[in-house]
Amino acid sequence: MSVPFRFIHAADLHLDSPFRGLASAPAPVREALMESTFAALRELTQAAIRNQVDFIVLAGDLFDEADRSLRAQLALVKEWAKLEEHGIAVYVIHGNHDPLSGARAELKLPSNVVVFGSDQMEYRPAYRRSGELAAFIYGRSYGTRIVTENMAAAYQTQPEAPFHIAMLHGNVDGDGTHDPYAPCELQELIGSKGFDYWALGHIHHRRVLHEYPHVVYAGNLQGRNPRETGAKGCLMIDVTAAKVLDLSFVPLDSVRWLERSMSITGIGSEQELLLQLEEQLDLALTESDGRMVMLRMVLNGRGPLHHKLMEPVVTRVLLEQLQEGRALDAGERWIHVYALEANTGAEIRTEELEAEDSFAGELYRMSMELSKDQLKWRAFAQDAIKGAASHAKLGRLLRSEWEELPEHWLEQGRELVLGLLHGNERES
Amino acid sequence: MKLLKAEIDGFGQLYSKQISLDAPVIVVYGPNEAGKSTMFGFIRSILFGFAKRTLPNERQEPINGGRHGGRLIVRGAGEESFFVERYATDGSGKLTLRKIAGMPGADETHPEAAALTQVEWERDYLGGVSEKLYRQLYAITLTELQEVGALSGDELGRYLHQAGWDNGKTIAMAERRIALEMEQLFKPRGTNQQMNQQLKSLDQLDGELRKREDAILAYNALKIQSASVDESLSLLEQEKPGKEARQALLGKAVSSRQIWLRKQQLQIERETIAYAGAIDALDEKSWMELLRRRTELESESERLRQKSLLLELQQEATVYDDGIITLTEEAEALLLTSEHIRQLKEDAQLIASELSEHDEMIARLVTSIAPEWTERQLREMHVTVADRDYVRTARQEELDYTRTAERFAAELETLKQQEREASAAFEEASSAAMREAQRRAQLGDSTGFEVLPLARDALKGAWNALDSALREWELERVRSAGAGSARDSAAGGGTAAAGRGGAGLLWAAAAGAGGAALALGAAALAGAGGGSGVAALALAGAALVLAAAAMLRKRDTRSRSYRRNGSSQQALSQMEQRVYQRLEALVKKPQEAAAALLASKQDSSPEHLLAAEQARTQLRAAVEQCLEALQHSERLDNSSSELARRLERLHAHAASRSEAAAAAAQTRQAAARQWAGWLAARSLPAGMSPAAALEAFELAEQALQRLQQYDRLAAKQAAADKQLAAYAEHAAKLCGHLEEAKAQLAADPTLALRLLHAEIRRHTAAMQESLGIRSRQDELLIAQRAADLQQQEIANQMDLRLKEAGLASQAEYELAIEHRRSLRELELELSKLTLELTAGMSSERAQALEKLYASYDEDELQSMQMESQAVIQTMENSKRELLEQRGRLRQSLDQLLREEEHQKLLSDRAMTIASLEKDAERYAVLAVSSALISKTKRIYEEERQPVVLRKASEFIGKLTDGKYIRVLSTPGEPGIRLESSERRIIDSGMLSRGTAEQVYLAMRLALAEEASRGAKLPLMLDDVFVNFDRSRLQAVTGLLSDLSHERQVIIMTCHEHVRDEILSNVKEALLVQL
């Protein structure tokens, strides 16, 4: 029998992270965004104190840049000092964004903080605030930015511990959207190693890969770019004496990234579209839990407005209209539409087009063949963008995109051409 | 579709022309301007509609008459024949289609006729070929043929796509748009494109970021520096206190050396006077006390001696007389009465003035009673109650007498007045009566009839007699006149009868009226005199006269009509006589009056009747006036006699009253005589009235009262005078003892007494003082003795002290005391100096200081101090520097922590990358779009073009007799190329004109074949073979012959050899000669 205790599992704080994927933003939004990772960190401290947790485990990527943000390091020390006052221990491993090799400010860490080394797996006993031994915590930091060895393989439990919590920053089961650092298989973690809880970091999407033993990504504390949508925060885990786990999510984000899509089918005018978009904004705001909202609106479906929306000017003006209608007062909750994307199609009946003996029909059939055949598509797309991709700087910068060759390019391209042909034909 | 016949109603120069076209190949031959092109245009117009009016060249309005338009007879794919009709006038060139049931050429039409829209027509019958496509592919002139040669690669491509899908332009537009947007976004070598610019700014941002100092390294460096600074500082802090203490000690040594020297000196001095230490402070104090007390006592005894001397002198000065003192009680007693005496004197004066006042008053009162009165009469005067009563009765009686006399006088006055009024009224009445009599006398003149002056009753009787006489006369006259008129007028019978019938009645009425009038007049006369009575009377008289006149006329008429004889005349004169008699009794001139009254006697005309009537009225008025006047004067006579009687009565009354008044006057005089006697008896003035006498009584009483008061006061005054004299005597006796008082006595005894009393008091006081002085002298003596005893005691004590101290004299003792004081001062200074030297020092430091003083002289100490000072200064400097350095470091650290520029740059960089990614994605989509179009085009060119090119190759092979075997068109490269039988590739631009035209024709034919597989539209060629040589011409005719199996071919030419060649080569060819 062990004692019941409570801890927080958080990861990927990415403090002081610049906001990627945002071409422009008004000053208040910018400020709120730049401040948001710090705000989330403070919220984490508050949540820990409020909920009287016994300790916190941080599974890597505390800073965003390997060796750059002094502010982030100072902020961490400050918050940790607060936790120290409340007797809450902090167990930390570093990840690919903040490896131990990175420059570090000469800061004295509070006594309640344990940072695991990078040479091998280490372990520390963790106590309840009342002093009883609660668990052993195992972990290993990244020594350098890139770690491709299977770190988990070397993790071993200590027999005297009442409960085993392993911290690991890495890619379990090869999530393609994240760097394949410290790769390992889920099977390996839930196998015979004997850990009770794998506190994972690296993947920013919160999910529970397995229960008993629990293999859990806490996700990041604060969404930092258009891809990191939805509520973000930490997990609070209650462990009973009988080692029954109860996971609860604690949202900590101050700015929430959301994406909503809306079909333009049946919408006849820009005015109507704008009205419906405003409704969507209001909906988004009600779903935001009182937080500030960064919203991307995606228009889809086929409708008469498609031709207008194909004009970049039109979407830009619509976006400005949406933005203008909303005040961005500091301290108030606000919603900022940072992008309006039109993935719409002209009013074309594809089944007719499929059979049509025409240029458009030919084009449609050909593009459908491409989307069916990944290899053909990649060859086709590579050929199409080779002018830009071969540009030294651009090619380097956007290598991942160039290499990924997302299929929505094909879809959008097809719609664009069909739309143009359709529209022009209609006009002539 | 095959054309069977063209029926041209009117089109350009052609009209009413029927051209059979029922053959696979038709050669239309004609010289220039024969209408070949017109026919060409006609067929196109029927198929696709008339050209617009703006293009008259193509519209071809008929110039030789006929309806603009016509019809084609065609056979469709299903072997059905139709009329295709189009007239410009019908629904602006709408197409009408009619099926033909029977043989081609037969005019019998199917009943069904349908008007089709052009779109339906093209879709259903022309295989979707539009006019444009038709012109390009099926109706070829030389110009259009050569267009093919001018095509560049892309254009050719478009041409080719267009042949399959009529939106080449659309595709081009889409391509252009995509390309434009791509160019705006990015160019590999561009600078101004959006993405290129973003790349540039990214470079800049990266550069700036690189240039920036690494915050963490800087932070760490600063931390290390500040740590070393802190260390140096703490070292300094440790060293500093020791150095500073040493410095302080040296400073103290230098500054306090003088004090130390002084201290040494004082210590030596102390040794010399140490002996005085034996005398303690208590000794000194008691010695001093003894000295002080001795001095005190000495001065006290001196003071006492002086005082006793003074008292002796005072005693000598105090003198008094016992004799005067014995007078004290008496003088005081007399002084006590002095106030009473003063009061008495004042009273005496008051009484004197009062007496004189009384005297005056009495004199005034007596004089007011009577001037001759004196005090004697007053004292004799005794007024009793009876006297008073008598006087009051006399006064009352006199009052009664006076009132009675007055009443009589008043009555007499009233009576006199009444008498005067009555006599005046009487005179007035008599004169009024006189005036009346005169007026009556004048009355007769005014009426014309002078009535006799008769009494009233006589006059009335006379009138009544006259009146009745007149009436009788009238009756008689009327009677006679009536008989006459009845005879004269036969027609008047009716009237006469009526008149007869009513005659009695009339008469009675007239009599009544007359009586009434008279009664009325009498009544009026009897009622009230005056104008109104006369007028009423006159009116009544007039009425009476009229009534009488009327009756008289009737009667006269009647009497005339009935009686002609003299009896009536006789009666009438009797009557007249009687009237006359009566008149005589009434008026003064009876003849005139009778004449006037009886004027109607002879002639009874209305004029006469009226005159008689008037005369009668006048008479009557005169009588009445006379009557009235008579009555009035009667009334006046009555009144004057009444007044006379009243006057008489008044005279009698006045006489009786005068007698009564005279009696009263006598009584009064008797009373006055009695009163005068009474007054004389009392020696009162004779003229005094009883009221005055009463007054005199009052005054006399007052005067008597005063007199009594006067007597009383006089007695009082005498008593006071006696008292005053006694007082003055007593005072004079007492004042004899004192000279000053004696002198004053004459003036005022009281003042003298006071002076004496003052003297007495002075002597008494002097005696008292002398006694006091004596007792005080005794007291002083006792005090003197006590002081002497104390002095002795002190001297003993002092001797005892000297003995105790072992000193010989008082002087020595005092010196010792002096030394003792010096010693104490020395010791005080010494301890002060020691304190100054060692204040706040620990004992060790004090010792060290002592050691310093012992070991070094002043110069040495000073140099040592300087050295130490310099060391400390150096330490201070380095400390300040270190502090400054630490401040700078902290500032830098703060700055570093506040730094946001780095973040901003990072954020800008992230944003730039984001825009770049966004644009790149758009670029990629555009690139993909562009690629999709290109690829589709390539499909067209590579998969569908080869069919066209294969056909073209086949045709060119046939045309050139195998010289050229293939037509080629490479996507992305311009122009058409040929492959010769020797596998040589020749660009179409390099070919001879003829060959080139053959190639183009081959292309056209191939495109035409490929483009419309459904409806085989007829192919029309307008003289396109002109540059062909014979063999090629043969070849082309052969080819056309082959093609015409599937598609009708219409060839227009103006060249005979072309015509002949075709006709000879194509068996089914039909010649149409224009």
From TrEMBL, chain A:
<dbReference type="GO" id="GO:0004527">
    <property type="term" value="F:exonuclease activity"/>
</dbReference>
<keyword id="KW-0269">Exonuclease</keyword>
<feature type="domain" description="Calcineurin-like phosphoesterase">
    <location>
        <begin position="5"/>
        <end position="205"/>
    </location>
</feature>
<dbReference type="InterPro" id="IPR014576">
    <property type="entry name" value="Pesterase_YhaO"/>
</dbReference>
<dbReference type="Pfam" id="PF00149">
    <property type="entry name" value="Metallophos"/>
</dbReference>
<dbReference type="InterPro" id="IPR029052">
    <property type="entry name" value="Metallo-depent_PP-like"/>
</dbReference>
<dbReference type="InterPro" id="IPR041796">
    <property type="entry name" value="Mre11_N"/>
</dbReference>
<keyword id="KW-0378">Hydrolase</keyword>
<dbReference type="InterPro" id="IPR004843">
    <property type="entry name" value="Calcineurin-like_PHP"/>
</dbReference>
<protein>
    <submittedName>
        <fullName>DNA repair exonuclease SbcCD nuclease subunit</fullName>
    </submittedName>
</protein>
<keyword id="KW-0540">Nuclease</keyword>
<dbReference type="InterPro" id="IPR050535">
    <property type="entry name" value="DNA_Repair-Maintenance_Comp"/>
</dbReference>
TrEMBL record, chain B:
<feature type="transmembrane region" description="Helical">
    <location>
        <begin position="505"/>
        <end position="528"/>
    </location>
</feature>
<feature type="transmembrane region" description="Helical">
    <location>
        <begin position="534"/>
        <end position="552"/>
    </location>
</feature>
<feature type="coiled-coil region">
    <location>
        <begin position="405"/>
        <end position="432"/>
    </location>
</feature>
<keyword id="KW-0472">Membrane</keyword>
<dbReference type="Pfam" id="PF13514">
    <property type="entry name" value="AAA_27"/>
</dbReference>
<protein>
    <submittedName>
        <fullName>Uncharacterized protein YhaN</fullName>
    </submittedName>
</protein>
<keyword id="KW-0175">Coiled coil</keyword>
<keyword id="KW-0812">Transmembrane</keyword>
<feature type="domain" description="YhaN AAA">
    <location>
        <begin position="1"/>
        <end position="212"/>
    </location>
</feature>
<feature type="coiled-coil region">
    <location>
        <begin position="872"/>
        <end position="899"/>
    </location>
</feature>
<dbReference type="InterPro" id="IPR038734">
    <property type="entry name" value="YhaN_AAA"/>
</dbReference>
<feature type="coiled-coil region">
    <location>
        <begin position="287"/>
        <end position="314"/>
    </location>
</feature>
<dbReference type="InterPro" id="IPR027417">
    <property type="entry name" value="P-loop_NTPase"/>
</dbReference>
<keyword id="KW-1133">Transmembrane helix</keyword>
